[in-house]
Amino acid sequence: MLDLRAAAWSSVGKKLITGLTGLGLVVFVTVHLIGNLTIFMGAEAFNAYSDFLASLLHGWFIVLADLGLVGFFGLHAWSGLSVWQSKRRARSSGYAVSADARGPSRKTASSRSMLYSGIFLGIYVVLHVWHLKFGAEYVTTLHGEEVRDLYRLVVEQFNRPAIALAYALSMLFLGLHLRHGVWSMLQSLGMLNRRLLPTAYGAALILGGLLAIGFLVLPLYVLFFVDPVGTAAAMGGLR
Amino acid sequence: MHFTLRIWRQSGPQAAGRLERYEIDDINPDMSILEMLDLLNEQLTRDGVEPVAFDNDCREGICGTCGLVIDGVAHGKKHLATTCELRMRGFVDGTTITIEPWRAQAFSVVKDLVVDRSPFDRIIAAGGYVSANVGSAPDANEILIPKVDADLAMDAAVCIGCAACVAACPNASASLFTAAKIAQFSYLPQGQTERERRVVRMVEQMDAEGFGDCSNHGECEAVCPKGISITNIGVMRREYVRALTGQLR
Ligand code: FES
Q: Given an 8 Å threshold on Cβ–Cβ distance, is B213 in contact with A92?
């Protein structure tokens, strides 16, 4: 009576896809931030972390993770866009006067701008990957082995104020997207009841805020407190 | 009290509509907004103008027939109230009140403020029923239902089908209505036979009617005169997953 294709295209199916991929992306972003915090520990720790990821499963981990991420981003964007498209069809003529109902409503600037913050983040992610992942391949030695000096690239780039500020500002959009996204994905997956919903709504603000602030602080920290160019690598290491 | 009214006038489904301005005087603060529209219609009839068409029936908040978007909010700014329950004392004397019909592609305007809500009937027909044995009436309390389940079912079953949820949803989604109807049965022993079929078919019908998708804005719950929680939409999604995974067995 129900084939999976039809189910995926249904309005509820799309919410399940948005929710599941959203959950995956939030987990990714959280792990990404925690990993990136190694930058506070200096060149060695950061490069060791990046080398650990790069060599995990003989390099296959990164390939698999990349494929997974492309799939998740793609599905998330597709289902999000189709929700927006359905809305345009379903409310073709609008109200002369419209106002917020308030009360238990969860409609916010964040929920209204999911499409725009999402598109912005999509563009950001492409640029970010191109900028750093496919950026200059500096090499350094770590415990006698040659590894990529990602630290040098990051420090070099974030020492350019325009780039550091662009990154920091982009993270405001991440916060905006996650304020609605985090609780909404749980609701989309049918995981909330009357007791959990307000908790999840509050937790979304905290988690979304923490992630955005965490990522926002990184480029600014490098800009203001870390000296340009892998002085470290170039001069034979920090320690 | 005196009000300036801006009311949506549209002579038929295909006709172009527009907001018309009317002045009305001597409004008793204890009148309902529908009684004010009755007075306006008497005034319009005297002036030889076609009266404003609007839906209403019980005028006590139980039937779900009335429904107007008042100053941009479905059923007006007062929470947990239908349009017919709004008293004029809740409005500021001398102000302008804008009154529009429910707007959704799925609901065509029949005339003025009256919209065709038959898509809701078709959603119900698609699965909002239970199978029952015919014959003599069953004994009361023959089927035992835990208190918690009965309460949850009732919380969903209070839906009067007014469609304010659709009117208020930025996406014109009918998720709260459809979910309430699905959720009420999901808690009860009656209707388990149709459980999986129900959610699949009702969602299918909801989509086919041209309602938008849900974005979890929650405006629906905020305008619902019966305060139906959006957690029922979560129930609908769980039921959908249940039907899907049942399918795989
Ligand atoms: S007329 Fe019955 S609910 Fe308003």
A: no
